[in-house]
Amino acid sequence: MEDIKNKNIVREIDIVGVAKQIFAAPKSLAKFVCFFAVLGIIVALNKPKEYTAQVILAPELASGGLGMSESLSSMASTFGIDLGQKSSYDAIYPEIYPDIFASTDFILTLLDIKVRQLDNDTEKTYYQHLKEDKKTPFWSYPGIWLNRLIAAMIPSSDETGGKGINPFHLTKEQEGICGAIRNAISCMIDKKTSVITISVTDYDAQIAAVLADTLQHRLQDYIIDYRTKKARIDLDYYEKLYRESKSAYNKAQRTYAAYADANQDAQLQAFIAKRDELENEMQIKFNVYSQMVTQVQNAQAKVQEKTPAFTIIQSATIPNRASSTPRSIVVLGFIFLGFFANAIWILYLKPFINNRKKKTATEE
C-alpha cells in the first residue's frame, strides 16, 4: 500500500513539475499561442461556410396493418436486428435508397437542375455552380497549381468536343464533380421507423434547400417509376389494343351503315344475309372494343394501386445557420494546438537542441 501511495505521489509531483516547467517560460508560451491563434483566425476566415438542408419523409406500407411477421420485425429493429421483411414496403425497400443516391446514373440527373444563389439572381445549372462558384481555401491552391501543371505537361483525352456529358465516359473533371455531389448529398434510413432523412450540403443556403427539395421529388419519381413499370407496360399494351379495337369497330359500323342505307328497300335474301353478316361483325367488334375499355380501366387502377405514397414529415427550408464548424471553435482549437506545441518545444525539442549544442561544444 505504501509503494502505491509513493507512486501516486511521484506521478502527481511529475505532473505539477511539467506544468511548472511549461509556465516557467511565459514568453515562449505567449509566442506559440499568439502564432497559432493568428493562424487559426486566418484558417477560420478562409474556410468557407457550409449549409445543410434536410427533408424527412416516410414510405407508405403496402398493408393497412402489421401482421405477426411485421410485428416481430418491428420489435427486432429496436435492437438493430433486420429480419428481412422487405416485401411489406410499397416500393423498393428503403435500405437501398442510399445506394440509389450514390449511383452515378442518379447523380448525373442532378447536373442540369436550375439553381440561384441566395445573394445572386443569376440562374445557372448545378453543374455550372459547382464549377464556377466553389470557394477554395488558400491551402488548396498548391495542389490545384500542381494538378494544372501536370495536366499541361501530359496530353489529356478528356475533351468532350462540345457534346455535353457522356455517362459512359466521364472526364476527370466530371468524375470529380460527381464525387463532390456524392459527398454533398446523403440519405439516412431509420431502421426502426423506416423514416428517410435526405440531407444536402452546399456553400449557398438556398441552393442546399433547392437541391434537398429536388432530391425528394427525384427519389419519389425514381421509386414510382420502378414500382409501376410493369403496370405501365400493361397499360400501354391495353391502350394500344383499345385504340385498334375502337378503330375496327368504327370501320365495321360505317360499313354496315353504308350497306344498310344503300339497300334499305331490298327484299332479296342475299342482301338481307349480307346485312346480317355485317351487323354480326359489327357486334363482335363492339364486344371486343367494350372488353378493351374494361381492360384499360383495370390497368389504370393497377397503376394507381402500385404507385407508392410518401408522407412528408419535414419539407426543405433554407437554413439560417451554417452547419460547418464555427469559426470560434476553429480558433480555439488552434490555441490549444499552440499550447501543446509549446509544451513539446519546452519539454523535448529545446532540451534536445541544447544538449546537441553542448555536445558539439565539448567535442570542439
Task: List strands and helices in order, with pairings.
Elements: H1 2-23, H2 26-46, E1 51-59, H3 68-77, H4 97-102, H5 104-108, E2 114-117, E3 120-125, H6 126-132, H7 141-153, H8 172-184, E4 185-189, E5 196-202, H9 205-227, H10 229-262, H11 269-306, E6 310-314, H12 327-363
Antiparallel strand pairs: 1-5, 1-6, 2-3, 4-5
Number of strands: 6
Strand content: 5-15%
Query: Count the helices. How many?
Result: 12
Given helix and strand content, the structural type is alpha+beta
* CA distance, first residue to last residue: 51 Å
Helix-strand pattern, N to C?
A: HHEHHHEEHHHEEHHHEH
What labels would you give this structure?
rod-shaped, two-stranded antiparallel sheet, single chain, 12 helices, four-stranded antiparallel beta sheet, alpha+beta, 364 residues, 6 strands
Structure description:
The chain is α+β, with helices and mostly antiparallel strands and about 375 residues long. It has 12 helices and 6 strands. It has helices at about 1-25, 25-45, 70-75, 95-100, 105-110, 125-130, 140-155, 170-185, 205-225, 230-260, 270-305, 325-364, and strands at about 50-60, 115, 120-125, 185-190, 195-200, 310-315. Helix 2 (about 25-45) crosses helix 12 (about 325-364) and helix 10 packs antiparallel against helix 11 (about 270-305). The radius of gyration is 37 Å and the shape is rod-shaped. Mean pLDDT is about 80; it is low at about 65-70, about 75-80, about 85-90 and about 155-165.
